[in-house]
Structures are given as C-alpha cells and as structure tokens.
Design brief:
By secondary structure, the protein is α/β, with parallel strands linked by helices. The chain is built from six helices and ten strands, in the order E-E-E-H-E-E-H-E-H-H-H-E-H-E-E-E. It is an enzyme of class 3 (hydrolase).
Length: 216
C-alpha cells in the first residue's frame, strides 16, 4: 500500500503545460526529493498533491483514501488528518506561543493533546522557548516550530516545499534532518521539493522534466 499516489496528473497554467500525465507513488516511510529550478512547477506540484489546488485531471490518493471530487470541508478534514505541510514561510500565528502554534491542528480537530505538542517542541530543541511568541524566535527556530506543527497530527504524508529556502546553510541542514528524523519515526512518507541539490545530497530524487518526474 502506498502513502501517496498520483496518477495521470495534467495541469496547465494558461497556455503553459506544467505537468502531463504525471505519475507518482510513495510508500510509507519513503523519502524523495523533487528537484527543479524556480518556475519548474515544484510548488504547484506540492499544492496539487496536498489538495490545495483542485485536480483538473488525474487521480490522487492519500493512503487508501482517494481524494477525488470531495467538498472543501471534507478535503480540509482529510488533509488535517493525513498530510503534514511545511513551506518556506513558517505561517505561525503571531499571537500564539510556539507550543500553542504546534497545538493548533489538534485544536482545530477538537482533539488537543498538549503532552504530544510539548514532546514535539522538545524534540526540535525548543523546550526552553515553548512559551515565546514567533517574533522573539530566530528564523531557524520558527521553522523548527513549523516542522513540529506539521508532524503534530502524526500524518501519513509530509509535503515540504522549499522548507529551508530562507535559512542559512547550518539551520537548513538542521531543519531538514529534524523533519526527516521525526517523520521517519512516525512512518510518514516525505516529499521534499527544493532547488538546493546540496541539501538533499544522498537522498533519492526526482527531477521535473517536460512535465514529468524522472530519476529517483
């Protein structure tokens, strides 16, 4: 069984065809990078796989669940339960503490687990900063909070779009390593989209070429 599967995805942006009959499969625990320069479609691919953009064609599964033509409400619920998202910008809520930001997915779902949120904050090395607000944290610290928040629901799939693009080299590696380590402990499949080949050196990687994924 796969954790993430896409079949026959085709996507156009105006006259530009970004993807054509794209297929993708990730098994539980698998890690893959998607490499490509700016404008190659990495962010669009992540948004399609996350159900943020509607599928104009093709099929998409999160585990055994086919995303299909579901209502926005049902799609949002499934995404909260099954998909963890990390972006270049942390998208933390400024009025909440680091710990409260990690807890947000549980609060939205009506099943908050402060103990689990605290353990995640500890695992990303921010126990001493748990009650600080984002504007008092460094860029690397904010991104580590974002990683902890993405992993709070114990997702089956983690989609990361340039998650270290705004960080220096040392912080970028730390955030990437934490993301892969914590996701791996939960058996989540990880797709990491980046232009930074050095960051994902040693990882199996696909490249976006002519609307399809090659390599890996």
């Amino acid at each position: 069984m796969w954790a993430l599967k896409a079949e026959g995805l085709t996507f156009r942006y105006g006259e530009l065809e970004l993807f054509r009959d794209l297929d993708l499969e990730l098994e539980p625990g698998a890690v893959r990078a998607v490499l490509g320069p700016s404008g190659s479609g990495k962010t669009t691919l992540v948004h399609l796989l996350a159900g943020i953009l509607p599928l104009p064609s093709g099929r998409l599964w999160w585990g055994e669940v086919e995303v299909g033509r579901r209502s926005e409400e049902e799609l949002a619920r499934l995404r909260r339960e099954r998909v963890g998202l990390v972006f270049q910008h942390h998208y933390l809520l400024d009025e909440l503490t680091a710990l409260e930001n990690v807890l947000v997915p549980g609060m939205i779902a009506g099943r908050p687990d402060p103990g689990w949120a605290r353990r995640l904050i500890e695992r990303v090395g921010l126990a001493a900063h748990a009650h600080q607000r984002p504007d008092t944290l460094s860029g690397g610290e904010r991104q580590r909070v974002a990683v902890a928040r993405a992993l709070y629901p114990r997702p089956r799939v983690v989609l990361a779009d340039e998650p270290t693009g705004a960080l220096d080299r040392a912080n970028a590696r730390r955030v990437k390593d934490l993301l892969l380590e914590l996701a791996g402990e939960n058996g989540a499949a990880v797709l990491l989209a980046t232009h930074d080949e050095a960051l994902v050196q040693g990882l199996p990687a696909w490249r976006i070429e002519d609307g399809r994924l090659v390599g890996g």
